[in-house]
C-alpha cells in the first residue's frame, strides 16, 4: 500500500476475527489512517484476556469458565477473585481474600458527613459514585501512579469491601433512615441486605434464599467485556487517574438508562402493560407498527445475535426465587407471555429480538425487596470486579493514554471579518 508518499506492507488478514482486527489496527497505527466508528461500535479498543463473548452463539465466559457453571457453582467473591487475579481461588486463597475484605467494610466517619450533605431525593447512583470518588481524599496514596502492586491491591480490597456499605447508605439516605454499620459475621450479600433493610431496635434476619439469589445476580453482572462503563473505566485509568476515580467514572457511565437503567425500564413497561389489562398480543402488535413502533424494553442486545446466555439463567432464577419466597407476581406471567410470543414470531426472530439480561433481573430484585432506583446500584456492585480486572489489565499491559481521533466535518477556512 502506498499512502502519503510512503509504502506500507499490507498485513496478512487471515486467522481469527481477533487476529485480523489486530493486523488492521497495526496498519492504522503505521499509516495514521482513521476510520469513523461513532460510539466505538465495532472498534476493538483493546486486547483482553478477561471475558470472552461470542454474540453469534450466545456464549459468555469469564477467564475461560462458562457463565452457566460459575452462576451455579461459585460465590460472587470467588468470581471476583477469578476476574481480578485470573484463576479461581484455592480454599486458603479464598479465606485470605474474604477475610481481608471483611476487615475493610467500615468506612471513615467523615464519609458519613459527606453522605449527610446529600438531599434525600438524591439518586443513589450519584451518591455512590461520589462516595467512591471521595476515597481518593481518604487514601491520597491512590493518586500515585507509581504505586506498587501491593498498594494497588489494597485499593482493590477497599473497593470491594466498601461498595456494599456505600450502596446501602445511599439507600438509607434516600429513605431518610439512619445508616447501619457492617456486620462482619455475615457473608458479603447477607451483610449488604442487613445494612439495607435492618431498622433500629428491630430484629432483622437475612433470608438465605434472598442472599443466595442476590449473590447469583451479582455473578451474572460481574463482567461483560468492553462496553460503555468498562471502556470508560479503562480510558479514565489510561491517564493514570486513581482506581477510585476510574471506578467512579464507570459508575456514572452505567447510570445512563441505555446501559444500567434498562431493567428499571422493563419493570415500568411490564407494569404499564398490566395496568392496561395485561394484553401482551396488543403490545407485540404495537412493537411491529411501522409508523409508531412501541419499544419492547429488555429485548435485543447490541452484541448478542442469539439469546443472551445470562437471560436464560435469570429466567430460571426468577421462577425459583419467586416460588421459594411464595410470591405470585403477575408481571412475571406477563414477561413470560411476551417472551414466548416473541420467540415464536418471525418478526422478532428475524431481528434477533430475544430477551436480554435486563428482562427478568428487575422482577427478581423486586421480589427481593430492592426498590427500583437501587437496581443500577446492584448492577454496579456486581460489575465492580470486572471493572477492577479491566483497570488492572490495562495498567499491566502498559497501555498508552486513550486518545480517540475525530473526523472533522466543520468549516475549512473562514475569513475573519470584524464586527
Ligand atoms: C452489560 O452487561 O454491560 C450490558 O449487557 C451492556 C453491554 O455489554 O453492552
Automatic annotation (TrEMBL):
Keywords: Acyltransferase, Transferase, Tricarboxylic acid cycle. It catalyses: oxaloacetate + acetyl-CoA + H2O = citrate + CoA + H(+). InterPro entries: Citrate_synth-like_lrg_a-sub, Citrate_synth-like_sm_a-sub, Citrate_synthase, Citrate_synthase_AS, Citrate_synthase_bac-typ, Citrate_synthase_sf, Citrate_synthase_typ-I. It comes from the Bacteria. Pathway: Carbohydrate metabolism; tricarboxylic acid cycle; isocitrate from oxaloacetate: step 1/2. The keyword Transferase applies. GO terms for molecular function: citrate synthase activity. The keyword Acyltransferase applies. It holds the Pfam family Citrate_synt. NCBIfam families: cit_synth_I, PRK05614.1. Belongs to the citrate synthase family. This is Citrate synthase.
